[in-house]
């Protein structure tokens, strides 16, 4: 029997097929969390909605549901925003500009993903499944970010631990942004809130221009 002749273009390249499935898993997870709440979503739910097998999900995301969030949203945002892997592109003489770009980007991400952010915020505050997952997050990405921040000229945190400062700064700024998302802060416009958060950030990091 003759082997079936392959027709060029009848199958997508493996890489594209893999990326499409991963994107489908991430999008299915996003939609289900928004509609059902984080704690109620199961891997089976995600597999059915994404039209993939449960085994395939664990192949790409071994730690399950929270792993999808971290790799699908968190890790991408960390590197995209902080430029951890592109440090040569950072102007270490312009800490205010770096901070402003981060905050503006965070505002855009939260506005674009408002339903998801709200659902995740509620899940994190209810001491449910997600609260336990957050405590197990690998801190290596945050160590890299702390290293980036410590390189900027003009900041002065004295003998404080850069990781502790990063955590304090992150909780403060993101906390206000999340509050504004759920209960809008009474500012004239978004840029006014941005200015306030930039000033707070510079103060937290002890920034002094020209130092």
UniProtKB/TrEMBL annotation:
What Pfam families has UniProt attached to this entry? Answer: TetR_N
UniProt-recorded Gene Ontology molecular function terms: DNA binding
Gene3D superfamilies per record: Tetracycline Repressor, domain 2
Going by the UniProt record, its keywords in alphabetical order are: DNA-binding
Q: InterPro entries this protein is in?
A: Homeodomain-like_sf, HTH-type_Tx_Regulator, HTH_TetR
Question: Where would I find the HTH tetR-type domain in this sequence?
Answer: 25-64
**Can the keyword DNA-binding be found in this entry's annotation?**
yes
Q: What is this protein called?
A: TetR family transcriptional regulator
State the organism named in the record. Answer: Methanocella paludicola (strain DSM 17711 / JCM 13418 / NBRC 101707 / SANAE)
* Source taxonomy: Archaea, Methanobacteriati, Methanobacteriota, Stenosarchaea group, Methanomicrobia
């Amino acid at each position: 029997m003759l082997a079936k002749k392959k027709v060029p273009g009848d199958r997508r390249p493996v890489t594209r097929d893999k990326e499409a499935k991963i994107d489908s898993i991430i999008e299915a997870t996003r939609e289900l969390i928004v509609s059902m709440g984080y704690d109620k979503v199961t891997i089976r739910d995600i597999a059915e909605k994404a039209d993939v097998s449960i085994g395939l999900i664990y192949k790409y995301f071994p730690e399950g549901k929270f792993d999808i969030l971290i790799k699908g949203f968190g890790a991408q945002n960390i590197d995209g925003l902080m430029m951890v892997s592109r440090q040569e592109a950072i102007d270490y003489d312009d800490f205010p500009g770096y901070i402003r770009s981060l905050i503006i980007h965070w505002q855009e991400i939260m506005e674009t993903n408002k339903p998801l952010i709200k659902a995740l915020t509620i899940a994190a505050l209810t001491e449910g499944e997600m609260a336990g997952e957050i405590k197990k997050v690998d801190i290596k990405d945050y160590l890299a970010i702390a290293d980036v921040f410590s390189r900027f000229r003009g900041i002065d945190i004295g003998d404080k631990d850069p990781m502790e400062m990063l955590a304090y700064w992150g909780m403060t700024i993101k906390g206000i942004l999340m509050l504004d998302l759920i209960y809008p802060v009474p500012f004239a416009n978004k840029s006014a809130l941005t200015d306030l958060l930039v000033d707070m950030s510079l103060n937290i990091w002890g920034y002094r221009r020209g130092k």
